[in-house]
Structures are given as C-alpha cells and as structure tokens.
Design brief:
Blueprint: H1 17-20, E1 40-46, E2 52-58, H2 60-64, E3 68-73, H3 74-78, E4 104-105, E5 111-117, H4 120-127, E6 131-136, H5 143-146, H6 173-179, E7 182-190, E8 202-208, E9 213-218, H7 223-234, E10 241-245, H8 261-272, E11 276-279, H9 282-288, E12 295-303, E13 309-318, H10 330-333
Parallel strand pairs: 1-11, 9-10
Antiparallel strand pairs: 1-5, 2-4, 2-6, 3-5, 7-12, 8-9, 8-11, 12-13
Helix pairs in contact: 7-8
Length: about 350
C-alpha cells in the first residue's frame, strides 16, 4: 500500500463544500429579497450571417405576444450609448462598436435585438417571431486572405482588414543567423478556440428607484471592471453600484469584461425598474462569446547542433474576429514577449 500525506492546511479544499452539498448558487439559482418585483427575462435575437446589412427588423408580432414586456432593435436601444472600450495599442484601428449591432452584422451570432418577457419561455417564443431582413455581404474567414489587397472589408472606413502592425526585437539577428550551425523555417497554426465554460455568461440586475442603487449578480473574473463598465454606460456613480459574484462555472479568461448583452440587460433593469436576468445559451456561447488564440506564425530559428536556440524571426498573423473587445488586441500584441531567444 502506498501511503500519502498532504502538507498541513491542504487536507480539505475550502471552496468545494458548498458545491458538493448543493449549497452553492450560480446566477440562475439566485432569488431576490422579498418585496422586489418579479424578475424579467431577456433573450437575444442574433444574426445567422457572418456579414450583412440589416434592411429591416419587424417586431410587432413579438410585442403582441402575451407576457412580453418589450422588444427592442439594436438601433432603438443603443444608438445613444457610448462605444465599447478596448485595451489601447499604438496604431490600433478601433471600429465603432456598441452593445448591439445597429446597421450591419459582422459575425454569426451578432446581437441585433432583444426581447424582455415575464418568463424565459415566452421570451424565447417571442424571439422566434422577430423577422429580420438581411442583405448578405461577402465574408472573410481566413486571416491571411483577409489581409490581402482587394478583398471584402469588414470596416470599409479603414480601407483594410489589418487592425494594427507592431514590431519588437533585439540583438544582432543577421550575425546570429550567419554563425548558427543550423536554421529552419516552419509555419505553425494555432487554431482559434472557444473557451466553452461549463456555465455560459450569466447576469442579473436589480435597480431600486427609491435609493438610486443598482445591484448586479454576475459570473465574472473581474467584478471591479463590471462596476466601472456599468457606471460608464449607465451614467451612475460607482458608489451606487453593488456587484456580487455568484459561483463562477469556469472562466478561462473570457469573463473579464462585458461584450454588450450584459450592458443591455442592466440598462433595461434601470428603464423598467425591475430585475432583469440574462442567461446565455450554449449555442450562443459558442457563437457570441469571445474566441481567442487564433494565430498563424511563420518562424525562422537559428540554433546550434546541440539544440541550443540562438535566435528567432517570427511573423505572426492574428485573427481578431469581428470587433475589439476589452483584451482582443492584447493577446497577439504580447506574443513577441513570450518568445525565447534574442
């Protein structure tokens, strides 16, 4: 028999007890205090096209369904909102992006309208009644092809699909390659990944008009950024916003910022002075949650016969997707700093 012992203090993980005994609460498990109005449920209408102009959105049938409180198109709800923030990168072309699409969609799953209803089932039925007329446009899915001249542009105002160029380096690369025993070249593809957390995005907001305070329950890796984002978009003082982190069913880095739908749910809670809940579905999560890491790298390496790496030349092409979320440009910009060698 093999006997094992653990260092003192590690005999029992403190975070497990509530979850394995059924006492943990994710956002969808939460109940509001007595006296608050019943929760309204939000669902999102999404684009089936990767690139298209929105010709019209018909919402009358959805609004007429019993139990529906409101239906809003993106243009109706977010045209007066500020644009989404992103980490500043020198030379970065920053497109104008608001929490919902307004005139054009740029990826499959782009949110174009929302439904607010008394229960989630009515909300989903109403979503099926929203009719959107799209004029499909050419779409690019290969980042190498997208950077070529005379290809369809995602943002025509920039004249290119290239968001930014950056360069880093050090040492005498030419001399190092000349004195190396060996060199090699290769093309490495890091495929785009969908984090696919066990629990998709989830949020609930409750605005109390008597106190002017907004309470937020989220599944987040960055609750202070949640507070700051809500304060900015809703024009509320940060001291009036109280953010509570429920149990978080996985994050993997994608729950560090809002992509838009959460901001819309909070705005509706303020508008209707009732709690609003939005729970992302699994299909939505795969379509509209942040993807990442998609890069194509052309690598030249100089090394010695004993395997010692001397120098690298790397050209990276990163797939930034349809728009810039908070950290979109940060990851590929940091690739060069993670390389070994001069």
């Amino acid at each position: 028999m093999i006997e094992m012992s653990l260092p003192g203090g590690l005999e029992r993980r403190r975070e497990d007890y509530k979850l394995i005994t059924g006492l943990g609460h994710y956002v969808d498990d939460l109940k509001l205090p007595a006296g608050r109005p019943p929760v309204l449920h939000m669902v999102v209408v999404r684009s089936p096209y990767a690139h298209a102009e929105i010709q019209s959105i018909e919402v009358d049938a959805a609004r007429a369904l019993p139990g529906v409180v409101a239906v809003f198109t993106g243009a109706e709800l977010v045209s007066g909102m500020r644009t989404m923030d992103s980490v500043p990168i020198p030379g970065l072309k920053k497109p104008e992006r608001r929490p919902l699409a307004e005139r054009r969609v740029r990826y499959v799953g782009d949110p174009v309208a929302v439904v607010l209803a008394e229960n989630p089932y009515v909300a989903m039925d109403a979503r099926d009644l929203v009719e959107v007329d799209y004029a499909p446009l050419p779409a690019m899915t290969d980042p190498e092809m997208a950077s070529a001249p005379e290809v369809p542009l995602l943002y025509e105002e920039f004249g290119s699909n290239v968001a930014f160029l950056t360069q880093a380096g050090g040492g005498d690369i030419r001399a190092t390659f000349e004195r190396a025993d060996r060199t090699l070249r290769l093309r490495v593809v890091n495929q785009r990944v969908a984090p696919s957390t066990m629990e998709p995005r989830a949020c609930m907001f409750d605005y109390d008009p008597a106190s002017g305070e907004l309470s937020a329950w989220v599944s987040s890796q960055a609750i202070y950024r949640v507070r700051d984002t809500l304060a900015s978009f809703l024009d509320l003082d940060r001291s009036r916003i109280h953010v509570h982190n429920a149990e978080v069913g996985g994050g993997f880095g994608v729950k560090t910022g809002f992509l838009g739908e959460e901001i819309v749910a909070a705005a509706l809670a303020v508008r209707y002075e009732r709690p609003v809940k939005w729970i992302e579905g699994r299909n939505e999560d795969l379509q509209a949650q942040t993807h990442g890491r998609g890069q194509i790298n052309y690598i030249e390496a100089a090394f010695q016969n004993d395997g010692r790496l001397l120098a690298l030349k790397v050209r990276s092409i990163a797939d930034l997707g349809a728009f810039l979320s908070w950290v979109t440009a940060m990851v590929p910009n940091g690739t060069s700093y993670l390389l070994s060698g001069p």
